[in-house]
Design brief:
Layout: H1 2-8, H2 15-48, H3 58-87, H4 89-96, H5 103-110, H6 112-136, H7 140-168, H8 170-177, H9 190-217, H10 224-268, H11 283-312, H12 314-322, E1 328-341, H13 344-350, H14 353-373, E2 377-382, E3 385-390, H15 400-417, E4 423-438, E5 443-448, H16 450-462, E6 469-472, H17 473-478, H18 481-484, E7 487-493, E8 502-507
Parallel strand pairs: 4-6
Antiparallel strand pairs: 1-3, 1-4, 2-3, 4-5, 6-8, 7-8
Length: 510
């Protein structure tokens, strides 16, 4: 709303702008609070509570009270304004200097509404004593009546001053809390504010009815017309002042909750860069600060999850997050693709390190894209080589076809997109152990077994082929006809470290 924007200003406002705006708004707010308190006193004194029957100088007492109240109200406004601003002056000092407050300055800033209310409480309490003593000359009953009505007006003034100053000083409080939220509430919380709204919205009118009842029981006769005036005055007081106090109280509670609710809706939509301004020193402010800490934790967790997924692969990351992590593995039917750069040692010696890294990143970027496209998982990067797995950690019905297709497409894309590098690509398949290998404090998900060794040996042989791709004939035979038709069976060789011979397969037209 326009009113809220006028009070809060802009998030980019300087400390001097915040301080100046608060100063200009506090003056009319304090005057309004005292005006409401004085109005309640006048309504109760002139329309609700009957004059004592023994009062002989009623006109004189009325004139003296009116003149004295006008003079005292003017003096109280001046003294209260000067005193109130001196009470919050430490806050104006550090916020104008654009620096972090010390502990004492932070305490003063957070208790600003209470300090302003205390100033009004002292001035109204002095007023109760002054008018009680002044009217005691005319009648002890009149002195007690005026004292009680002045006390009710003072309570109302302090409450309205607190609620208004709390709203006006919200930007100041937010600036103070931006340097660190307290561990405990420093202002009245939801219960106190709720009781405050009830006391002023309902309690004051009920006290007025009680005073009428006391006056009637003590012997004063109340006519029907006087009773009607009393009901009308108290009803109007409850409807106007009570409604306004209730509105201020509910807004003081609802605004912080709504700010958290709106931010929570953004978090539910996936936005984790949300931050709620903390501007309340009660448990509502702790709620706002707690929400910010929660979102920061979620953001950090999501960043770690993303980083974890980039290091080990999304499938492994999901599996690790969904189940307990433990060392060990299980036997899986997998297909393994191994790709190794030709002449990487020579490359590192001839080119600058940053250029080598850029080439490697381009190379591995193509590898990751192709493997992901065919449903595989790049398990690890080994300097100038990469190991990709099909069938682990997520089991798949068809592992041979996607692995062979990935090898063919990888060779094509590397030749066109990274022509400065040549690579040997080997593909094999079979049973292997897939799981977490290492120690309790440091381990990795990997695949160990004959298919891995065979794929690495095939990639070495593939470096000598023009096409740069070799696969085991057994894997080609396991693939469907759509993929096996793209391969030609060739010679049989003995791979290093294996007793059985392996028949090779190359892409058609290679």
């Amino acid at each position: 709303m326009l009113f809220d924007r006028l009070i809060d200003g802009k998030p980019t406002d300087s400390g001097k702008q915040i301080s100046r705006r608060a100063t200009l708004l506090l003056l009319p707010a304090i005057a309004l609070a005292n005006g409401i308190g004085a109005s309640i006193v006048y309504v109760l004194a002139f329309f609700v509570i009957p004059s004592p029957p023994e009062l002989d100088q009623e006109t004189e007492a009325l004139v003296v009270n009116l003149v004295t109240s006008a003079i005292y109200l003017l003096i109280a406004l001046v003294v209260g304004t000067v005193w109130g601003f001196r009470r919050v002056n430490p806050t104006r000092k550090w916020i104008n200097e654009e620096r972090a407050p010390d502990k004492e300055e932070l305490r003063v800033a957070l208790r600003g509404p209470l300090r302003i209310s205390l100033v009004n409480a002292v001035l109204w309490l002095v007023g109760v004593l002054v008018f009680g003593a002044l009217n005691f000359i005319y009648s002890p009953v009149l002195a007690a009546t005026v004292g009680v009505t002045a006390l009710l007006g003072g309570v109302t003034t302090c409450a309205v001053a607190y609620l208004l100053s709390e709203r006006i000083l919200r930007a100041t409080t937010a600036r103070a809390l931006s340097y660190g939220a307290p561990s405990r509430p420093v202002l009245p919380g939801v219960r106190t504010r709720g009781m405050l709204g009830w006391a002023l919205g309902s309690g004051v009118p009920l006290v007025g009815l009680g005073l009428v009842a006391v006056a009637t029981v003590s012997g004063d006769e109340v006519t029907d017309d006087e009773l009607a005036i009393v009901i009308f005055a108290l009803g109007g007081l409850a409807l106007t002042v009570g409604l306004y106090i209730t509105w201020l109280t509910t807004r003081a509670v609802a605004d912080p909750v709504l700010s958290v609710r709106r931010a929570l809706a953004k978090v539910e939509q996936g936005e984790l860069d949300v931050e709620v301004p903390v501007y309340d020193g009660s448990e509502l402010g702790l709620l706002q600060a707690g929400f910010n800490r929660m979102v920061a934790g979620l953001s950090e967790r999501e960043r770690m999850r993303d980083l974890f997924g980039r290091h080990v692969g999304e499938d492994v990351a999901h599996a690790a997050l969904e189940q307990d992590i433990e060392l060990g593995g299980e036997v899986r039917e997998v297909a393994v693709l191994f790709v190794d750069i030709v002449g990487s040692t020579k490359l590192a010696g001839e080119r600058p390190p940053d250029e080598v890294v850029e080439l490697l990143n381009s190379f591995f970027g193509v590898v990751v894209d192709v493997v992901d496209e065919h449903g595989g998982f790049v398990n690890k990067f080994e300097g100038d080589a990469a190991l990709a797995i099909f069938g682990a950690p997520i089991p798949r019905d068809d592992i041979a076809g996607p692995a062979l297709a990935a090898a063919r497409h990888l060779a094509e894309r590397l030749a066109s997109e990274v022509p400065d590098l040549r690579a040997g690509i080997g593909v094999s398949g079979g049973r292997a152990v897939a799981g977490n290998v290492g120690a309790e404090k440091r381990f990795e998900y990997t695949v160990i077994g004959d298919p891995v060794n065979a794929a690495a040996r095939l990639s070495e042989l593939a470096k000598q082929e023009d096409c740069g791709v070799l696969a085991s004939a057994n894997l080609v035979e396991q693939a469907g006809s759509d993929e096996s038709g793209h391969w030609t069976l060739g010679d049989t060789v003995a791979l290093r470290g294996r007793e059985a011979e392996t028949r090779l397969a190359t892409p058609v037209g290679a």
